[in-house]
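Just wondering, does anyone understand these tokens?
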Amino acid sequence: MNKPVDYPIYYYEFIRRVSLFCVPTKVVEYSEIENLALGGLLFLGEDKFTGISNKTYSSLWGNLRFAIENKRDDIIFQYWSNAHQYKGFWMSEYSKDIDRIDKNRFVEFHIALGALLFYKERFESLKSILYYSNSLPPKYELYPINSTDIFLSLDKFLSFNREYIFIESKYPFPEKNGAGASDYIKTEIAKYLILLLIRELSLPQYYTYDNHSELPTLPITENDLYNWKENILPFIRNSYIELWEIIERNELVYDCITINIFEDYLNEIELAIEVKYKKTLENQPISIDKENEFKQNTTNIINNKIAIIKGFNQIGELSKDPITSNYKIWFKQIVAKGAFANDQHISYSGIDSSCAEYIVFNFYSIYSSIFLLHTKKTYMLKEEDIFSGIDKLVSSNSKFIIIACRTNIDYWASIEKGITKEVNYFYNNIEIVDLWNSHPNLYQTFYIIERVNLPRVNFNEPQEDEIKKYKLDDYDKEINLFGKLVDLNERKDLHIDIPNQKEQKEEYAIACLYLTPCIEVNQKTKVIEFKVFDKFDNKGVPNAISDVKSWDELFPKKEEKEEDK
């Protein structure tokens, strides 16, 4: 394979000096050396294929730019004809040895060169090369092959592309440097590509299969279609009217193309993109990788958040006949299917966590409400009296546990000296469990309960009909968590579950999670509730410390024995 050639530094310097000498003088006697040095022959070669390196491209660009700035249209034309021969013959002759990327780079170089001519208003020079060919029927070697290639080139220059972040170092334009130079140059090249699109429509038809007005082949992915729809087409529409005045004034393209024909052409493309974009949104499949990621993330979040309550099963001791309550936590959210499809124009984030947090919140609300249901006595105390009240109730007795609901334990630790932290928080040897995700009505509430009577939680399997309806997968066997991402384009029978405002139902998916906890509580369970008094939210007056009785006073052992009987 012919690798790109880097010539010795003095070779490039020699050609640069020839350029500096010959270009401004325009002496006929030097035309042969101009053709060799500035016409590209010393770089491109005449009798064999030579690969072009980045250093050679840079030297070529500098010399040709100098010629354009000095209005040497003859040198540009001579170079163009040599480059046309190089691309049409040598790159074809050695096509097996040439990487497609090399061919694309060669065409890209000449697109940028044409854009520089347009930018410098060298319209006569442009006219000489826009339809240049040395064969019949003509082949235009240095231009995009068709409208599809033009749109792909527009995509490269108008979208974020790391290759063109510093395009000013690759194709420097005169008077354009510093901040903003890159965006300006890319915009100028994109405008020139619009001119090439108009030129493409004006090309004559030599064969019956020639169709220069054919619509470009549309992209496949949602991301690329969206980019054409929202970026490329609007850019063309915002630019072509100004370009058309220049085109008409300088007769740059054949007059068989009118502005109305071009507008109709753009309208056809826009309609085709809209139709395909809608179909793509409907038909794009849910990514297997993203569905597995949804399963893993939601399962991990739920397990991590409810681990502390699952741990209560190791502490509590169930009586022979506990009170059993079964619950269902059903989460179904309608989401854009793009959130779980590949190649999207935007990044969706947080859906996994929001779905899992819904399950966690409802689970905690259910579990914390159990304490409320078994509360035997409530004390409403001022903030500074809460832990003094707890002291009076259970006095450092480690057989109890404090359940803190919707309160900031770190804050309490900062104002209450008796609170310490090892792995968990403790208050005078009594463990504190933080249930921040408790029921909203339990704000700033503390429950005191005997450790042996902590409610236990198990997880039932969902009902078979629910599993079958949504074809749920078993996400986690330990907690019987079931879930599924349901493609509504495939499950039209579930459209009835979608609100009416979702018109294009096929573009959506249902994110499903299903958990069925079973909570068991001993019948003799007793709970004391302490709430922080808020003068703005609570009526009346708070309890005094003297109102608080000890556990033994509230529940004499004699009464407990009678209850056991």
User: Anything to note?
Assistant: The CA atoms of residues 407 and 463 lie 36 Å apart.
